[in-house]
Specification:
The chain is α/β, with parallel strands linked by helices. The chain has helices at residues 52-58, 62-65, 71-82, 92-105, 121-128, 136-142, 155-170, 207-224, and strands spanning 3-11, 22-31, 34-43, 86-89, 117-120. A five-stranded mixed β-sheet has the order 3-2-1-4-5, sandwiched between helices.
Length: 236
């Protein structure tokens, strides 16, 4: 069984070194690449003001968070949820920097030490799509994952979206079979030689069809005003 936890946070600002704190944590669970119904979600009282820029992103005010638990009250529950799992985070250094800082304030082992491994989907996306936008919104659009309900950033919603993005990014061809016959298997289960089909039909293009094909290629070459790649001679 492969257990993975997709994690996201919201914060009071951009830098824990200058006193910014975590104000929301959202996690969802994947077992063997499938979402389960287990989630972890908490709003957290940072006991400090929230930067205007951060508020514009997530809409979480100090007043709204004033009656929420402080980080120390949810730390053990967070550890229990992620313990031994592979963590999947978009721009992992940001979230891990904040969470390690919170654990340091509690004089506890760094948060990242509780994970079996860490995958940064931003790093993976930049390798897959170099030079492209690779924000969570951009990846949702690229993989046709609806995020129309996302008007502001929210840790649990973003974790759920990231789970869908991660599965889409790492999915191989699982269906849409082009050929139902596996020609790479040359023997049957009992070791006998496998017989390939002998009734395959070969349909050759007619002279008229070939002429029409050449005409279309000529029109494409003329409109592109460039040497077409199919005219390049193939050297032996």
């Amino acid at each position: 069984m492969t257990r993975q936890v997709i994690l996201d946070t919201e914060t009071t600002g951009l830098n824990p070194a200058t006193g910014d704190r975590v104000i929301e944590i959202g996690c969802v669970e994947l077992i063997n690449r499938r979402l389960t119904d287990r989630t972890f979600h908490h709003y957290i009282n940072p006991e400090r003001d929230i930067d205007a820029g951060a508020y514009a992103v997530h809409g979480l005010s100090r007043e709204f968070l004033s009656d929420k638990p402080v980080f120390a009250q949810i730390a053990d529950e967070l550890i229990d949820f992620v313990a031994g799992a592979e963590l999947i985070i978009h721009n992992a250094p940001f979230d891990l920097g904040f969470l390690d800082s919170e654990f340091a304030l509690l004089k506890r082992t760094p948060f990242r030490a509780h994970a079996a491994a860490i995958i940064d989907t931003l790093v993976d996306a930049r390798q897959m799509f170099p030079g492209k936008r690779n924000s969570l919104d951009a990846l949702c659009e690229r993989f046709s994952i609806s995020n129309n309900h996302r008007t502001l950033h929210g840790a649990l919603l973003d974790a759920q979206l990231l789970a869908e993005v991660y599965v889409a990014m790492t999915r191989g061809q699982e269906d849409l079979t082009i050929d139902l016959i596996d020609y790479t298997v040359t023997t049957t289960a009992t070791g006998q030689a496998k017989q390939l089909p002998t009734n395959l039909m070969v349909l050759a293009a007619s002279a008229e069809e070939c002429a029409l094909h050449e005409q279309i290629l000529a029109e494409i070459a003329k409109s592109s005003k460039k040497d077409p790649v199919w005219d390049f001679a193939i050297q032996p």
